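Can't paste images in this forum, so I'm doing it all in text. The chain is below; anyone willing to post the predicted structure tokens underneath?
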Amino acid sequence: MTHDTSKIMRRILQLLALLIAILTVTGTAQAAPCATNCLKPGDYRIVTLSGGLPRSYLIHVPVSYTGTTAVPLLLDLHGFTSYAADERKYSGQLQQSDQRGFIAVWPDGIALSWNAYGCCAVGDAANVDDVGFLRSVIVAMKGRANIDDTRVFVTGISNGGGMAQRMACEAADLVRAAASVSFPLNTNTCRPAKPIGVTEIAATGDATISYYGGSSSLPPLPDDTAGVPLGVQGARESLAEWKRIAHCSDDLTRTQLLPDVRVEEYRTCDGGVRQGLVTVIGGKHVLYSNYVGLGYTGDYVAPIDVASYIWQNVFNL
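Text version of the structure:
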């Protein structure tokens, strides 16, 4: 065997070994610890390209993260007219990251919007591939940190909550559960790749995205004008749709958490997932205190800590 032939054979063997390693990692439920370009505790801003568009996201790695143990990953999505930095500041998930040890990511939508079902503005009108972008964020995070594949979650408020619900429909192969604040599923075409649990937290006094829904002359569900949906699915109709999607039994568990907070859950569904609705009686659209999105400047304080509730009752898997 000539020297050149030996080099070629060694290269082929190296490539085969690499392919086997990739297939092995892909086929396991638990991601391997990061080997190169690994994240350490701290805060980062990443700029990348997705679908030909420049996209960005913020990352917080808690001080407890060592890289030796797989941790959960959370994507936390801002509302329409807002930024990733606003969501990071007001949603409460930054504090939860430090307390619970998960890695949190706050992506930015295009033109302060997300392409959720029927909403909002540029994201919807231009049919931006936000699902593709968020999927790529999850993959990138798995490459730079030791992420628990079985505990990848997504949440968001308003338009971001709608995007969280869309991710539940179109990225259930990557996402374990979703929590939406103040936005319903808003479609009847959801077909998750596997069972996924979804909980919406919604307020009966919401003057932006009505808890009771609204009609439109545009079938089957409408687009929006200036970021406000022309029609929207009601919160209870959204819960009923998730019940159908997950093939849940008719048994509905009702809990009066507080005098003005009611919890309803379907707990017997395919794959052991839960579908839930948390109703805040008389609450407003923005269930984070002093959130800046949607021009909100009031002093309304929700009766529950939304971020804490989500981790204690939705992402407690």
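The two ends are 57 Å apart (CA to CA). The chain has one domain: 42-313.
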